[in-house]
Amino acid sequence: MHQNQLEEAARRLTEAERSRTPITPLTQTYDGLDIPAAYEVQRAVIAERIAGGARVRGHKVGLTAAVMREQFGVSEPDYGVLLDDMFLLEGSEVPAGSLLAPRVEPELAFVLDRPLGGPGVTVADVLRATAFVTPSLEIIDSRIRNWEITVHDSIADNASSARVVLGGTATDVRDIDPRLLGVVLRRNGEIAETGATGAALGNPVSAVAWLANKLGEFGVTLDEGSVVLPGSCTRALPVSPGDHVRADFGQVGSVGVVFA
Amino acid sequence: MSGNVPKATTTLDVRGLAARLITAEDTRTDVLPLSRDVDLAVDDAYLVQREVLRAKEERGERIIGGKLGLTSRAKQIDMGVDNPLYGFVTSGMLHDATAPVDLSTLIHPRVEPEIVFVLKEELAGPGITPGDVLDATASVCAGLEIIDSRYQAFKFTLEDAVSDNASSALFVLGNEFVEPSGDLSLLGCLLQVNGKQVATAAGAAVCGDPAQAVAWMANAAGRRGTALKPGWLVLSGGLTAAVPLRSGDCVSADFSRLGGVSVRAR
């Protein structure tokens, strides 16, 4: 893809999010939107947000379930950037009409107390660099019409990131088996999905290591204080206005969100 | 098994229906659902199941516990029912986890990870609560159940599945028996096939709480005059969708607090 096409694709995504008007899949509009080009579009989208005053507060890893990667025909996960304006406080509401077709994913969020710069980051480095883990809900959304996404569309669209709610109970990752926390996701009080934290690449610690190394390819380091969402513990749960969603994570606590 | 036998709602050939299922199992030949031919009520189906189990007992097998099926809300919605179902496990179903499963003894086996309760006290419903279940439980352990429907393509109604003893075939147990403590609904489980992770779940996948599932069985069986006995195992229901067990496969499950369990097929 040509540079001005990349910039145009980024502008379309930004405008879709701002106006809450979904667009046709970029892969239908542009030939040659391969994975490197898709990440370039993502970087252009994020650069525009940063130019508008947003700050990078973390990253998310997506496609961490093998079944999803097979469905999308890719061999590795993808990632997106978490900006400060995506973080909602637990107990506040997601305003009606603020998102297009939101879905909720429970994730064991990692918070770093020292930087992690790939390549060469090991699982041991991640364990040493993690201040604590906390329950979280990632609210994903697609700026692409009806979620008709290929992996390239999703990467360009910042890995379908939208909002993040952190639970606010901190647990030392060394005190738990980060693979085996049971996760129960309830919508309006009814159990909708169950899973375990190892749903993310077999171990969410591996997902953080993958992210640090992948970002290292682009010279990007995960900063001290970064929040990393390592991938969902269940299938994504579609939500409607009026829904409330809660996730319980074994002994590490719970987190909830309300959709006005 | 002892207890009062509920009256059948129709004059069904209970023995004849049970014989079809026993023959299907013996000859490893799947059959059409019984509900294709006869109008089966749930109570009738439990009478057919009892007859199937009686045939196993006549061959020297002993009932050593209970099992639950259709414990996932998603599966219940699929089948248009509001309740799980129960069956019983016999000494012939307990498989030594160190030996491979001989697939030639089964029709179309599938594996599901389960939390298994070992009872130290009788549970005689109705009126059993999840708290009663935990009080009556000596330990819980990891299990893999190998289910095998006698029906073609695993297609059946709730009544068919009850008749077929909840698709019972074999099960293996993990080596770690722990006293039940904490919230079993938040126990995590990872399922792997040949080293590749295929599913994850939490205890809440079975009836919201595995202890709730066991209480449901104690109450439902209690209404039919059967109590869960001290020393029995109760397989509380599949935590994930069942995965096919094929030749050469190794299926393993890891549970928080309960360790791991695995089974392989020849």
From TrEMBL, chain A:
Region (Disordered): 1-20
Biased composition range(s): Basic and acidic residues: 8-20
Residues of the Fumarylacetoacetase-like C-terminal domain: 100-255
GO cellular component, as recorded: cytoplasm
Keywords: Lyase
GO molecular function, one term: 2-oxopent-4-enoate hydratase activity
Pfam families per UniProt: FAA_hydrolase
The name this protein goes by in its record: 2-keto-4-pentenoate hydratase
Organism annotation: Streptomyces sulfonofaciens
UniProtKB/TrEMBL annotation, chain B:
UniProt KW keywords: Lyase
GO cellular component, one term: cytoplasm
Example of a GO MF term: 2-oxopent-4-enoate hydratase activity
Source organism, top-level taxon: Bacteria
Span of domain Fumarylacetoacetase-like C-terminal: 109-261
InterPro entries in the record: Fumarylacetoacetase-like_C, Fumarylacetoacetase_C_sf, Hydratase-Decarb/MhpD_sf
Coiled coil regions in record: none
Protein name from the UniProt record: 4-oxalocrotonate decarboxylase
The species this protein was found in: Streptomyces sulfonofaciens
